[in-house]
Amino acid sequence: MKDGYGRTIDYLRISITDRCNLRCTYCMPEEGIPCLAHGDILTYEEIETICRAMAQIGLKHVRITGGEPLVRRQCWRLVKKLRRVPGLQTVTLTTNGILLEEQAQQLVAAGLDGVNISLDTLDAAVYRSITRCGDVSRVLAGLEQMQKYPQVTVKLNCVLGGVQWEQTAVAVAGLAKRCPVHVRFIERMPLAEEDTQSCAQDDVLAALEAVYGAAQPCEKPMGFGPSTYVQFAGFLGKVGFISAVSHKFCADCNRIRLTADGKLRLCLQSDRMVDLRALVRGGRTAELISTVQEALKEKPQAHCFEQRGIETACMSCIGG
């Protein structure tokens, strides 16, 4: 799969639900959002059909997201289906971790290759404030459970903010010192008008080096996305950065998104979408390949987060 700028597209993020059991301040309004009707959401079988078609033209990596994917029943069934798709190399999951402890065994048995756990702080009170209702101990329990499965790559995603972000960064990064997990700091993208504060990558790295010493860059990629990684002496895991604003990586973008209701979204910020659900439910699966290839020609060259005043859908409506 090639877009209009010659970039190879081989990574698909699949939202399987718009529902979530948290209300994180930078992702979803406190009152929630109007949820899609059950019949509007793609079935696991329909997702498998789409992935089988796209795998024929180069799809290699899929990531299951939400909302919160683990609130959808038997998420492991989709993992198992996708692992059987010829051409797919990895099937991974992004979760807030609240339900991970109880579902980890089934997900791993189904063939999950990796899991990204969102964890913005280790402080219980701060976590509850950010998520408006979450219990960080449940996330940590899920993280501990995943340590039983060394064949699964575990990464922690941390979105920093607040007046004590330096202390938070040091504390969360410390998990990579004690455990074989990779901690990634993600710059907050200006998706919500009321919350545009961000901690730039260079500032975060400086705060970490002040405590843990000089970091060495990792030349070997640690996945198939835009993260860059460094290694601190004595750490079991690595520390990474996903910095869409301060270190724009659009030139190497390899991903597209599938929303829970079957829209192929070409860029996180762009509202250009193609309805794949209509093709699947209309029995027109043969058209999927050509439709995707034509759609990719319209993938934007880059996001425009740096331009103020551009309307962007909230993250909870986009899919993780």
UniProtKB/TrEMBL annotation:
GO terms for biological process: Mo-molybdopterin cofactor biosynthetic process. Its EC number is 4.1.99.22. Residues 4-219 form the Radical SAM core domain. The keyword Repeat does not apply. Its cofactor is [4Fe-4S] cluster. InterPro entries: Aldolase_TIM, Elp3/MiaA/NifB-like_rSAM, MoaA, MoaA-like, MoaA_NifB_PqqE_Fe-S-bd_CS, MoaA_twitch, MoCo_biosynth_MoaA/MoaC, rSAM. GO terms for molecular function: 4 iron, 4 sulfur cluster binding; cyclic pyranopterin monophosphate synthase activity; GTP 3',8'-cyclase activity; GTP binding; metal ion binding. Gene3D superfamilies: Aldolase class I. It catalyses: GTP + AH2 + S-adenosyl-L-methionine = (8S)-3',8-cyclo-7,8-dihydroguanosine 5'-triphosphate + 5'-deoxyadenosine + L-methionine + A + H(+). Keywords: 4Fe-4S, GTP-binding, Iron, Iron-sulfur, Lyase, Metal-binding, Molybdenum cofactor biosynthesis, Nucleotide-binding, S-adenosyl-L-methionine. NCBIfam families: moaA. This is GTP 3',8-cyclase.
